[in-house]
Amino acid sequence: MPEPFLPFNRPELDEREAEALAEVVRSRWITRGPVTERFEAALSRYLDGMPVVALNSCTAGLHLALKVLGVGPGDEVVTTPYTFAATVNVIEHVGARPVLVDVEADTANLDLNAVPHRISRRTRVLLPVHFAGHPVDMDALAEISQRHGVAVVEDAAHALAAEWDGRRIGTFGFLAAFSFYATKNLATGEGGALVVPDPALRARVRTLSLHGLSQNAWARYTERGQWAYAIEEPGYKYNMTDLQAAMGLVQLEKLEGMQARRRALAARYHQKLAGLPVVLPAVRPRVGHAWHLYPLRLRLEQLTCDRSAVIEALRAAGIGTSVHFIPIHLHPYYQRRYGWRPGDFPRAEAYFAAEISLPLYPGMADADVDRVADTLARILERYQR
Ligand SMILES: *Cc1c(COP(=O)(O)O)cnc(C)c1O
Questions:
Q1: Which end of the chain, N or C, is more open, meaning fewer C-beta atoms within 10 Å of its C-beta?
Q2: ∠ CA(10), CA(15), CA(16), 5° rounding?
Q3: Atom 2, ligand 1: which residue's CA is nearest?
């Protein structure tokens, strides 16, 4: 009998999330309200007291970060080609120009050594991504930001619980956007949060996240609420709901345990996959990896097949995988807009050509890791030169 399908991802949900959702439903207050405020407080505690605004996505957080920093037409934002489209789309949304810098060959993170050469008079923001949950060098990032007077916005979609020198990502004093999308380390279906240390910027993020309505306007339907409201500027509809926040509170309580399980599974992959014609994900010194992804790379020069043949063979064996990411400069929109071509960012392309993201989530058993590793070993043996 064939083994059951092992999906690439499955959020770690149980009756606790279901009960928390039911409580919100019974309360009849289902959009932003008291539960979202509790979630913001709990997330802030997790981030050593750094203040956060809960939103409906990480993308919303990145967009609002650029807005409140005043980034607009004529400005440049230095970022990575190795990311999800959202990171670069928001630069387009504010009318600024993305300046891509190639990645490090081992981590696929923005190569900070190359960044200073690409900073111009127009550069307003550095927008690094902590790919797979492996943080960029935060000391180097802070140094470049200070020396060149350029703000930092972290795309921390993969990096909740990631650490640099024992300090959590999101606590370094920069704007940082987290994602609580269904596949991320903390899942609320859709959801996100933006760390905004500065009180004035934070007030503006709150206003912009709810149409541009004056502060706490969400409370206008409560007993003590006022019917009147004032539009300060044309904002967006980016607020979190109490339904999402209720799940988020439970997930936050489970986070430490979920992260311990991710670390154990990653360590088991490391051990089981050693010796195969693959490159294991790098973990640099001083890094606490969040293990959002387990990005394996095939040593294609030792194989007679390409990456998709391996993905197909894994699928045929009942194992789901994914690929992270199709580099930004290979997408048609960005090619048309900026004239980017294959070959422009060779390290990103090489990483992409060889990458397969293996299943990695807290609900996996040790036996699931063994099954993936053994199946992969059999497949690669078939194709070895
Ligand atoms: C998931 C993801 C996002 C977007 O997160 P949403 O919450 O879905 O908006 C942004 N950047 C990266 C690197 C991501 O993986």
A1: N
A2: 100
A3: 157
pLDDT value of residue 1: 63
Q: Give the H/E segment covering residue 92.
A: helix 85-93
Residue 184 among the catalytic residues: yes
Backbone angles phi, psi at 383, to 5 degrees: -105, 5
pLDDT at 221 over 80: no
Q: In this predicted model, what pLDDT tens digit does every residue of 229-248 receive, in sequence order?
A: 888 899 999 999 999 999 99
Q: Kindly report, residue by residue over 298-320, the tens digit of the pLDDT.
A: 999 999 999 999 999 999 999 99
Q: Which residues of 309-347 are buried (b: 16+ CB within 10 A; e: fewer)?
A: ebbebbeebebbbbebbebbbbeeebeeeeebeeebbeb
Residue linked to tokens 């900026």: 338
Strand 163-164 with 167-168, pairing:
antiparallel
Cα 84 to averaged position of ligand 1 atoms, centre (Å)? 6
Q: Is the pLDDT of residue 220 over 80?
A: no
pTM above 0.90, yes or no: yes
To test the ligand 1 pocket, which listed residue (8, 53, 57, 58) has its Cβ within 8 A of the most ligand atoms? Answer: 58
φ and ψ of 204, to 5 deg: -70, -35
Mean pLDDT of the chain: 96
Catalytic residue among 67, 184, 237, 254: 184
